[in-house]
Design the sequence.
């Protein structure tokens, strides 16, 4: 069982940067693929970024086209925390950002592939 708690969301101006956090409880955190999703008002939840468990060859990351080059996902297994660094923010990035954990190995972009979810943190980008 994994509990996820997101934090760090706030109001930020377009062009600005923001880092959101996902703190996880549970002993197996390091073995999970972690992902970030977001949901804007009136829209479906969409994939943002994912990072695999760290192995001998490191970890892999994957990004939605809409955020690639602007967002960076990372993890610190010692702190049971996943980060999403967001730069060059745009008003269309406004959404509730959710952290998710999957017991399945590899990169997953589909929400149904994730087993555990946090409650979300609101990110609002003003123009």
Sequence:
């Amino acid at each position: 069982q994994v509990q996820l708690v997101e934090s760090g969301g706030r109001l930020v101006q377009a062009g600005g940067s923001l880092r959101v956090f996902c703190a996880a409880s549970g002993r197996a955190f390091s073995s999970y693929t972690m992902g970030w999703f977001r949901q804007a008002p009136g829209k479906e939840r969409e994939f943002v970024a994912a990072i695999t468990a760290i192995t001998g060859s490191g970890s892999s990351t994957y990004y939605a086209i809409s955020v690639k080059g602007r967002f960076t996902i990372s993890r610190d297994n010692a702190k049971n925390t996943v980060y999403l660094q967001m730069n060059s923010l745009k008003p269309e990035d406004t959404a509730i950002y959710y952290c998710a954990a999957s017991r399945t190995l590899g990169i997953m972009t589909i929400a149904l592939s994730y087993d555990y979810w946090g409650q979300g943190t609101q990110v609002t980008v003003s123009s």
Q: What stands out?
A: The chain has a mean pLDDT of 95.
